[in-house]
Amino acid sequence: MSSTRDIDDLIEMMARLPGLGPRSARRAVLHMIRKKALVLNPLTALLQRVGANVRECVTCGNLGSADLCDLCANEKRAIGELCVVEDVADLWAMERGGAFRGRYHVLGGTLSALAAIGPDELRIPKLIQRVAEENISEVILALNATVDGQTTAHYIADQLDGQVRLTSLAQGVPIGGELDYLDDGTISAALKARKTI
Amino acid sequence: MSSTRDIDDLIEMMARLPGLGPRSARRAVLHMIRKKALVLNPLTALLQRVGANVRECVTCGNLGSADLCDLCANEKRAIGELCVVEDVADLWAMERGGAFRGRYHVLGGTLSALAAIGPDELRIPKLIQRVAEENISEVILALNATVDGQTTAHYIADQLDGQVRLTSLAQGVPIGGELDYLDDGTISAALKARKTI
Question: How many CB pairs under 8 A join A and B?
């Protein structure tokens, strides 16, 4: 449809990235070609470096450029607290929050009967091993508040019962949230967990 | 904020592409890393090829992988009709329409007093040269219906007056358009250009 096979292929591939469609892919590709020195070439170099270097941390499953990710290798992070998340995007979200100073464990998904994902498909055996071997005092289950996320949290809680302190993120009204726009489940959770002022 | 400097840089650069923001860039980058063999590596290779090969056609300004773009080199395209567009995105849009079988001339922008863009900053001298040298019978001014687009169309019409047949795209109700959602300018243009059924 456009000028050359390569540009067409590039647009098609960009259009399949999450968050992009054919129209925005065309705009992005034209933008890159117009700013070749400023955008296209540096982007190509970065993709090459990321493709060659980035891998999963052998301990926690986070992404990094060595066998141990930057967080696991960072001696300033508290060893006692372990935060369990579904995937790397959730870890990044926690880090943006900036409130957690411990280490992470990335499961790589959730248990799912429908998709036939059992504990061994996730990093759950490794989690149990870490709790047994590392000096962990608290496991924070920061899984998504979905059915699969909560099923996984319950399964892990069962497995680790009695070995370590287990906590989960508080549920309630988001900062800046308006009651009128919240779903019923969140409002009742916030009411149940109400605090004395 | 994430795991490695390279991933952060990649997210930042993707987020600056038109149509993407920080959140969609993070999702796209994670998607690429997860599907390294299927997405990241082929995308890198394509970007490299596009960066190395794609250039502007010396005749029309379209993008291609040789000095003459595929459209200018295609002997099946009618030589007599020349369609003048603002940029390559407009050329692609015309080609998707599939109704035009002639050749193109990409101006590379519009005249703009504010941005100090005169005829020599655009491919207007080359257009005048092409009309004088090639066997062109009709110039179709397919410029955007904006103030700058129409100013540019008038300027080109002045320059080529008497040398060639000059036409512009019809204005009216878009196919599938509802009158209720159209702006007043379009409705009066469609009314002025009304046709006997």
Answer: 162
